[in-house]
Amino acid sequence: MSTDSSGHAGDRTLSIDADEPVGSDAVRLLALGCVLVLTGAYVSVLYDITRVVGGSQSLLALVGVMLLAATGLARTIRPRTAGVLALVGAGVGFAYYLTSAGVELGVVFTAADALLSDTVALATGLPILRMVQAGVWTLGFAPAPVFLSWYLALRGRYELGVVPGGIALGFLVLTGDAGTLVTLAGTLAAVGAVAFGELERRGGSIAQADLLAVLFAVIVALSLSVTIVPGDPSGPTHLVQGEAGSLEATIDSSPQRSGISGQVDLSPEVRFTVESDQRSYWRTGVYDRFTGDEWVRTGQSSRYNGRLASPPGNYETVQQTVTAETELGIMPVAPQPLSLGGDVTRETSVSRHGQPRPETPLEPGESYTVESAKIDADPAALRAAGTNYPEEVTDRHLQTPEDTSSEFRERTAEITAEADTPYEKAAAIESHLRSSKDYSLEVTQPAGNVAEGFLLEMDKGYCVYFATTMTQMLREEGVPARYVTGYTSGQQVDDDEYVVRGLDAHSWVEVYFPDHGWVRFDPTPGGSRDDVHTDRLEEARANGNEAADTEDSEDVPIDEDDGESPASDPNEPIGSPSDPNEDNGTDPGTDPNNGTEPDDPDNGTAPPDDPGDRIDGTTSDETSLSEHLVGIVRETGAIGLIALVGLAAGARRTGAATRLRRGVGVYWHGFRAEPDQDAERAFRRLERLLAREYRPRRGSESARAYLTALSAAETEAESATPLDPRVEQVLESYERAVYGDGVSRAAADEAIEIVDDLARSRLPILGRLR
């Protein structure tokens, strides 16, 4: 035992002085490490983007070069010079981006309006993945903040060093590309860099850790609030009136994204009717960028101005009138639409691919007319079409995720080994998928790249899997292809009338042929698909589902051929549509895959008011849902833990924790310990009771002197409340425990009971010290 200056006995223990300064070298390393974590946060977001569009190795190499350059120049140039170099690097990078996006080199440095338009669109919620030249944009974006942050950090300017990285991360939060955990990691690293820098400069101590924890908790709350700044809707604004988990909700739940999920269902309810003298698939969406688990439409939408671009070759036209039978957030058309008519077209946007979409959902009964081009897609002509593709087509419709496996490429090459032309490759892939895979709505989404999983591992799937895989296989073979969603022709109820239901939702492939345009291929097996759809409609009718029919269709028997692709007719050759009116091309001119006028500039961005931006497809797959819930729980747990630490640190910093602990200790002794320790603790509790009733004990007073002084004060003041005589017994136990030979268990317990009784009674302490 050792004795302190007050005579109190205590154990010899090893303690850390909270005011002892931490080593400056260690603090500096921690500050620099935080800057690197901040840099890694926003670079990781950019890396995920380049893994989809290509260029991840270039990005990492560029980041490495910037870090090395900053390290070499940290002690040789001034901060102002470093800032100028960073700005020059950013200017060169974005000039390269603008030239890649189609702006002429001679006007790059005067194209401030184009760059400003892109920046505004991104800052108001446009994901970078939707930009046509997303990979080039990341290479232009990364160098300046990486170089400047690391340069300033190495010079000890940590507060300024986190500013470029913080702006970079904040911008990616606004675009919606930075997730919650990445945002938290980056913001906490920024606060850590500033905090450790302050410790290094002022010789701070670990006693200030509670203040840092409070700052961390505050910045977490601020970082989470930033994610609600963009005008991003919380749910689908243009969702087809289909149940969550239906095929419709998966493939066409937003204008910019088309999801890929696991198990889905089919809705038998009628969505729209079409009056047309030609059977067709009814297209609702075109997507050109594959991320591995979803499709994205890139490019800019524009308001419909009375005419759409034409396909490149000769064509005839076909007319349709489409009437919504339920609230409809899409605008089905027969490809390739040339013009639209009707009141709804005054509020219609058109994608870069020429696909219209209403800016507000169509109400039941609303209708519009469509004039579409029908091209001659004769197989012989397609075989002879050649490979003289426009640059705009090859730039945007040959994309595959950068991490596509060699096994996928090799298997694709085997399947197309006997094919000499793009048409023959498309026909070979279409035939292989139809004959080797079964149709089923009950599947589990594979992890990672869905096209790879379906081709190499799965035995069955539905249209999304077939179309996605065929598109990616064609691209691996250098054949431009894109993923398309919509509906099959539906049930024909009259010579020129078709009823289209939710169970007709479908996805297919469009392949580009020079001088023809985009031609439809459908790799999904038609027979088994029709069986499933027929069973679903028969079940709905048997159950009396009135929404499954219109007045014109309720008495029409189900025709198993309704909605079937002409190409799936076993009497027709694979890949050669029996009705050439149904496969349509694209527009000519400088942008063959553009659905707008040829002279319409395309910066690869969407306007800030582009409706329904960044809305994911809905999935009902139990595995995917489980993983999603786990992710939510993980993020919520991390945020909750940080919040608790912040609250605890704040309570300690303000003294609230100490006051709470002492307040509780007055009324509850706690768990029993050694008798001497319990006797001492009982007196400390009594001391706090007396401090409330009379005054606190002064630092110079012994325990007995304190009680004697309180007794003397009572004698002088007639109105004073007398002390309870039992306090003398508590004092004696305390003195024997601290200064004497100790107390017995019974004596300690009796002292505890006395204090418990005085505390719980909340009555004045009676009696006088004798």
From TrEMBL:
Q: Tell me where on the tree of life, at the top rank, the source sits.
A: Archaea
**Transmembrane regions listed in the UniProt entry:** 29-47, 53-74, 136-154, 166-197, 209-229
* Keywords, comma-separated and alphabetical: Membrane, Transmembrane, Transmembrane helix
Name the residue ranges with Acidic residues bias.
548-564
Entry keyword Methyltransferase: no
Is this entry keyworded Transmembrane? yes
Protein species of origin: Natrinema versiforme JCM 10478
One Pfam family this chain carries?
TgpA_N
Region annotation (Disordered) ranges = 333-368, 541-624
- Which InterPro entries does the record match to this protein? Bact_TGase-like, Papain-like_cys_pep_sf, TgpA-like_C, TgpA_N, Transglutaminase-like
Domain (Transglutaminase-like) ranges: 455-525
The protein, known as: Transglutaminase domain-containing protein
